[in-house]
Design a protein that fits this description.
The structure is a single chain. With 531 residues, the chain is mainly β. The chain folds into 3 domains: 181 residues, no CATH class; 79 residues, Immunoglobulin-like (Sandwich); 249 residues, no CATH class. The protein has a 7-stranded mixed sheet with strand order 26-32-24-23-22-34-33. A hairpin with a 4-residue loop joins strand 4 and strand 5. The radius of gyration is 36 Å and the shape is elongated. The protein starts with a helix and ends with a strand.
Length: 531
């Protein structure tokens, strides 16, 4: 009957064009009032003309009215001993699976399975493909390779784990050993990949994918290369380490084993620190904070620019910030340490009108959804974001021809810097300029690749040129940190001439008062990490 079922299976592995699957053992464990009794009666042999697998074993394990056991007691129980033999010439790989049958009612985390000296909860062995469609699940106990006429013998023990809950009474664990044999290459190489770590104040979770058919281990310690502690609950997918010290670096080693050998990966991770609020002493310190957005293209409706050179910004590339002010309400103002790698174009009359509001709209993309209360672009200080009174753009209209004590009259030498700022409504741009300059000692800034780059200030400027021409500018900081201006449009009997101005952007973010420092020393190499 078993042989007929095997011949009908299409998902087993081919060797010499012959499918070889040996279903050998029925094992039953019952707790309290249930009983399952199945015996191994004969030696099962399935062979082809050039390859064969022989299995021999004693009677099946039968535990009735069983009770939970400690590991040391379970390891002393009578095992089911079985031998796998390669009966023909040529090496062959094999995988030993333990498959829980359809009438199993135990949780897989309540049964402990030991093969020779390796014992784990059934749930901790690597899950495999089921041979019986109506089985609960299949898990790989071991894999290996047999040379010509080679053999290997295993001792299998099973018992109810000492930590099984009382709800597991009156349940059954019924299982069968399934041997899958195949050509070389069927057994996986030992691999550990996609390692990631997360942490809390007192724990570290390591996730990964390991090919450990024979198990995966996880160890850790507080010194690099020394792993004194073993995590007994490690699986082929994760290692959860608890009971750790806050703000401490731990070193770990993950090892996995298959029938082809073993492989280890090492790394480190730190627990989170006890959060502390920002103080005035933190002005000038560096903070790590990565914006959520990865792409934003300023629209022409804001910038006035319709050319093809406008590129998408990547806000998340600016992830290092520097504290420029700690406010009395607990909020923290920070400026980006770098400027964007892409430049933003503003052009013409519309670019001039919308410059400040457009830059503030761009700055709003530099949030993380948790810590940032609000944003602004460097240079903005509550001035008019968008010029709504377009009559201001006429050389014959106020305020260009104001002659009151608080105004001015155009002369052949033009206007002063203060007059040009007042006329554009950007008198307060120096507030941010001074904050940043006080921390850095310079306004010069690099892009992420380390190149000094021009960047915009959220500030307009106009200048009188002659009785017939007026020029409208956007302010920017030059590569040497000096203040400069880029002409966007001119008025010469009408706005007939538009110019393109392009510079990088440098946002300012304001952290919520609830944002605290979790770890880090506040230097550029070890910036503060937020809670």
């Amino acid at each position: 009957m078993e042989e007929e079922k095997i011949n009908n299976k299409k998902r087993t592995i081919l060797i010499c064009s012959i499918t070889v699957v040996a279903v050998i053992l029925i094992v039953g464990i019952s707790y309290a009032f249930w009983q399952l009794t199945k015996l191994q009666e004969d030696t099962n042999i399935i062979s082809s003309g050039c390859f064969g697998v022989s299995l021999e074993g004693n009677e099946a394990i039968n535990l009735t009215s069983a009770y939970p056991l400690k590991t040391e007691e379970g390891m002393k129980s009578t095992p089911y001993t079985f031998t796998i033999t390669n009966t023909c010439s040529g090496s062959a790989n094999y995988i030993v699976n333990l498959e829980s049958l359809a009438n199993t009612t135990f949780q897989n985390s309540s049964i402990r399975v030991a093969l020779d000296n390796t014992d784990k909860l059934y749930s901790e062995y690597t899950e495999s493909n089921k041979y019986f469609d109506d089985s609960v699940e299949a898990r790989t106990l071991v894999s290996g390779t047999l040379e010509d006429n080679g053999s290997v013998t295993y001792d299998l023990r099973m018992w109810i784990d000492e930590n099984a809950p009382s709800t597991e009474q009156n349940k059954i664990f019924a299982s069968k050993i399934v041997i899958i044999s195949g050509e070389e290459g069927e057994i996986l190489d030992p691999v550990i990949e996609n390692i990631e770590t997360t942490s809390t104040l007192e724990s570290i979770t390591i996730t990964y994918q390991a090919s450990g058919e024979m198990g995966t281990t996880c160890k850790y310690g507080i010194e690099d290369g020394t792993y004194d502690n073993v995590v007994s609950s490690a699986t082929n997918n994760n290692c959860y380490i608890t009971g750790l010290t806050p703000n401490t670096t731990y070193y770990y080693q993950i090892c996995t084993e298959t029938g082809k050998g073993s492989k280890c990966e090492e790394g480190s991770a730190s627990t989170k620190g006890i959060p502390k609020p920002f103080t005035q002493a933190d002005v000038g310190k560096y903070v790590s904070m990565t914006p959520t957005s990865t792409s934003y293209t300023p629209p022409s409706s804001i910038t006035g620019y319709t050319g093809s050179s406008q590129k998408a910004l990547n806000p998340s590339e600016l992830n290092l910030w520097r504290v420029i002010k700690v406010n009395t309400d607990g909020t923290v103002e920070m400026v980006s340490d770098k400027v964007s790698s892409k430049e933003v174009y503003f052009s013409g009359k519309n670019g001039y009108i919308n410059l400040v509001g457009g830059l503030n709209t761009i700055a709003a993309q530099y949030t993380d959804g948790k810590h940032v209360l609000r944003t602004r672009h460097i240079g903005y200080s509550n001035q008019t974001e968008t010029i709504t009174d377009t009559s201001m753009l006429s050389k014959t209209s106020a305020p260009w021809t104001k002659t009151t004590s608080s105004g001015w009259t155009a002369t052949s030498s033009g206007f002063t810097e203060a007059q040009e700022a007042q006329g554009a409504g950007d008198i307060g741009y120096t507030a941010d300029y001074n904050l940043v300059n006080a921390v850095y000692g310079s306004m010069e800034a690099n892009n992420p690749s380390g190149t000094a780059t021009f960047y915009w200030l959220a500030s307009r400027r106009f200048a009188y040129s002659s009785s017939t021409s007026w020029y409208f500018y956007g302010r920017y900081v030059s590569t040497d940190g000096s203040l400069n201006k880029s002409v966007l449009s001119n008025y010469n009997s009408g706005f007939g001439s538009d110019y393109d101005g392009s510079c990088a952007v440098r946002p300012i973010i304001i952290l919520k008062s609830t944002s605290e420092i979790e770890s880090g020393s506040g230097t550029s190499d070890s910036p503060y990490i937020l809670n």
